[in-house]
């Protein structure tokens, strides 16, 4: 079929509009140029008149008469003088032009002396890295022109560099991590320590942009985040890193902040999470924050290897299947979870084959949250029992289809003891607290594009979902409400998110032998499932 041409208004209408706009803009510019003296004089006359009015208002009433007399006499004398009115008009215009001039101080065209010194010293420091003796026209040379190499720069209020774009020679080995690291280290040192910097290497354009980053907000506590089912907020990051913001209440006011959102479920490419950190870095808090969010739509089974009771606030709450702190309980709970994953898979498969939608009791998300499982693994090895991690294989492999999500928190020293399936299937990764470049690379797969933060608050770190970009991360504060050190506002924030109690906090008699213990867990349809310990 022959293609009908577009109506003229659609095919070249936008061209005309653009041309019209350009014409209007240039006409306005020319008019402003021509009328500029007139505008200045009018502004000056207005200012003079305002000054006169002020002066008149400030003159005491008894002096106004003589003043008026004086002014009238001057006017009369000027009017009688030859060329008097003309000279008076010219003087008035000159005075108006002087007072009407634009008084906004013009911004300095370039950096001031101290800033120039900083740029010069930075340039000199870069010379050995960005030059070779064979280069006939080096961009970087001792005593050379820094203005040619520094495409753009900005300084903050304290006179330190806040943004800098550097042009570098094409032969610089910007593809090598070691070469980049040397430059980043140097710029970090020379631009002022005590801040975080982001480095963006434009390998095609041979340009490096360094930006000083503001600290991430630490005043956001656990709360109901506006997310869709299947979305979990891991924390908050830089505005440039993500394309969305979330409204949160922080410090008593509402703010929009950019979140790191982790999507789980059938379509997720990162269906399970591994969070690693040093002692006290906040990985337990991250798991608690996740639990508080997912309990809105799903059930949670918690295994706490550290045995410090940091999830006690969740015990006996609706949707919390169990909080297991010992080896026997953990084995029983995880065995049940493995069977439950298989049950869901089989039920879904049968329904699919019968051409029906998946049964209701396979739809409620099930979350397995494991805090330091390797501690229990060591206990199991000592007692000659099964490592609880081995029971995670089925949920890790089939969890995405079956609606089962695994989140593991571990410390760096326990990383070696994590079994392969845990490493392979936990593609959502978080590192919290101080970590070496090698540790970050081991967990996140690559080094972060930012320098380490000098001040590392609890819950601060990095997140990376699969092979996506790396984000700076600040986990919302979700501390243990039963911890005495927890502030009242944080305690209330966490307590308000806890589901209602469905069972007493500690249903077992304290002297019950652990070996005979029976773990009662709530089935997905509210039925009781009994797993033998
Ligand atoms: N995101 C956060 N915001 C504010 N405080 C936090 C945050 N994360 C952790 N904290 C505080 O830091 C301390 C340690 O946190 P947490 O217990 O979660 O660390 P951890 O990594 O589990 O360490 P450990 O296993 O040694 O207990 C707690 O007092 C906790 O309240």
From TrEMBL:
Keyword hit for Manganese: no
Residue ranges, compositional bias (Low complexity): 520-533
Domain FtsK span(s) in chain numbering: 257-441
Keyword rRNA-binding annotated: no
GO terms assigned for molecular function: ATP binding; DNA binding
Chain segments carrying region Disordered: 498-533
Transmembrane segments: 67-98
Keyword annotations from UniProtKB, A to Z: ATP-binding, Membrane, Nucleotide-binding, Transmembrane, Transmembrane helix
SUPFAM superfamilies on file: P-loop containing nucleoside triphosphate hydrolases
Residues where ATP binds: 277-284
InterPro entries per record: FtsK_dom (IPR002543), P-loop_NTPase (IPR027417)
Entry protein name: Membrane protein
Species in which this protein is naturally found: Streptomyces flaveus
């Amino acid at each position: 079929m022959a293609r009908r041409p577009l109506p003229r208004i659609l095919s070249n209408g936008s061209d005309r509009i653009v041309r019209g706009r350009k014409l209007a803009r240039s006409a306005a510019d020319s008019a402003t140029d021509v009328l500029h003296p007139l505008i200045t004089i009018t502004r000056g006359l207005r200012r003079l008149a305002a000054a006169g009015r002020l002066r008149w208002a400030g003159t005491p009433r008894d002096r106004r008469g003589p003043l008026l007399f004086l002014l009238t006499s001057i006017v009369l004398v000027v009017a009688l003088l030859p060329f008097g009115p003309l000279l008076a008009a010219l003087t008035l215009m000159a005075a108006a032009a002087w007072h009407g001039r634009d008084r906004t101080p013009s911004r300095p065209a370039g950096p001031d002396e101290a800033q120039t010194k900083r740029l010069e010293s930075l340039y000199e420091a870069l010379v050995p890295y960005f030059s070779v003796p064979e280069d006939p026209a080096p961009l970087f040379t001792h005593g050379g022109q820094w203005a040619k190499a520094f495409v753009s720069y900005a300084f903050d209020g304290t006179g330190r560099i806040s943004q800098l774009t550097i042009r570098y020679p094409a032969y610089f080995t910007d593809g090598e991590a070691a070469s980049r690291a040397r430059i980043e280290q140097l710029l970090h040192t020379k631009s002022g320590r005590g801040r975080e910097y982001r480095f963006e290497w434009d390998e095609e354009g041979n340009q490096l942009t360094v930006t000083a980053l503001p600290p991430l907000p630490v005043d956001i506590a656990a709360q109901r985040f506006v997310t869709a089912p299947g979305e979990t907020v891991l924390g908050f990051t830089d505005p440039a890193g993500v394309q969305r913001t979330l409204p949160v209440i922080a410090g008593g006011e509402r703010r929009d902040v950019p979140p790191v959102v982790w999507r789980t479920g059938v379509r997720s490419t990162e269906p399970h999470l591994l969070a690693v950190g040093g002692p006290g870095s906040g990985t337990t808090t991250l798991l608690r924050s996740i639990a508080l969010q997912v309990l809105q739509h799903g059930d949670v089974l918690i295994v706490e290897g550290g045995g410090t009771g940091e999830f006690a606030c969740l015990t006996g709450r609706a949707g919390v299947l169990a909080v297991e702190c010992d080896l026997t309980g953990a084995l029983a709970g995880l065995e049940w979870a493995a069977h439950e994953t298989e049950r869901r898979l089989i039920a879904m498969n049968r329904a699919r084959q019968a051409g029906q939608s998946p049964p209701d009791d396979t739809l409620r998300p099930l979350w397995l949250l494991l805090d330091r499982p390797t501690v229990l693994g060591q206990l199991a090895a000592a007692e000659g029992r099964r490592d609880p991690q081995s029971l995670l294989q089925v949920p890790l492999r089939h969890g995405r289809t079956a609606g089962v999500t695994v989140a593991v928190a571990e410390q760096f020293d326990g990383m070696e003891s994590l079994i392969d399936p845990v490493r392979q299937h936990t593609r959502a990764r978080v590192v919290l607290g101080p970590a070496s470049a090698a540790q970050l690379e081991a967990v996140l797969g690559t080094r972060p594009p930012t320098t380490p933060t000098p001040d590392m608050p609890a819950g601060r770190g990095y997140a990376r979902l699969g092979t996506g970009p790396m984000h700076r991360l600040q986990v919302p504060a979700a501390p243990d409400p039963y911890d005495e050190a927890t502030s009242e506002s944080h305690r209330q924030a966490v307590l308000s998110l806890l589901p209602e109690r469905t069972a007493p906090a500690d249903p077992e008699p304290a002297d019950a032998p652990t070996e005979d213990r029976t773990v009662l867990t709530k089935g997905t349809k509210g039925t009781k499932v009994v797993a033998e310990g």
